[in-house]
């Protein structure tokens, strides 16, 4: 049995097709579409061009998936549509024109599903996680395998880039403005919260950061690095270090403009919670959505 999950993000739209065999699953096919929906937000609304880009991407996905025998296909959106005031109109137009239903996830539901994906990899009972998306950042604290607090920083790597950066890479002033914004957002939410030695990251921004650090530091894996290595990357990006930029172009060329904003968010979050080590989960919200769907299907 094959099931397709489509994650409509603010920066990219990702199609994963999973093959299920009893209680096990594996990725049969994956494809990423760089739609950059957050860049089409004007006056709080997804523009006509943005809606058309979304519809074209969904049409392409529908064409790809018609050649695969699927039990079902599921589309969900997070901050990409949650943060725009015309979300209902966009979802209705997609349904009317393409006969595709988009499941718009609430912030708390996004955090819950991301945690299910993390638990698949690490299985730890207590900890701190971060999901840096294109349009928002979700931070969650979990205890006894349950989320006890989650909050949204309202900006992600792409929305930060759009708001603060004029060129491809930020200047010192632009970097400082982004840092200050993250600090203020964290201060509103993280007062009186415990510190954590380790943070678990999910999402494309954190994975790209891990790959660049692995390349620069000659690490065995991109799935774990230290706060000091993250600080070093931050300084090199700010100085526009040639070796570092070459590494970015090699491992994450489509994120050349959003990588530094992502680093700013991750670095300030790590400082705020006194994190020493960052681990990256290669499973996240898409796997969480799949497992949650299968669990509900079995229960019903």
UniProtKB/TrEMBL annotation:
Family according to the record: Belongs to the GppA/Ppx family.
GO BP annotation list: regulation of transcription by RNA polymerase II
Entries under InterPro entries matching the protein: ATPase_NBD, GppA/Ppx_hydrolase, Ppx_GppA_N
SUPFAM superfamilies, per the entry: Actin-like ATPase domain (SSF53067)
Name the UniProt record assigns to this protein: Exopolyphosphatase
Domain Ppx/GppA phosphatase N-terminal residues, every copy: 17-296
Superkingdom in the source lineage: Bacteria
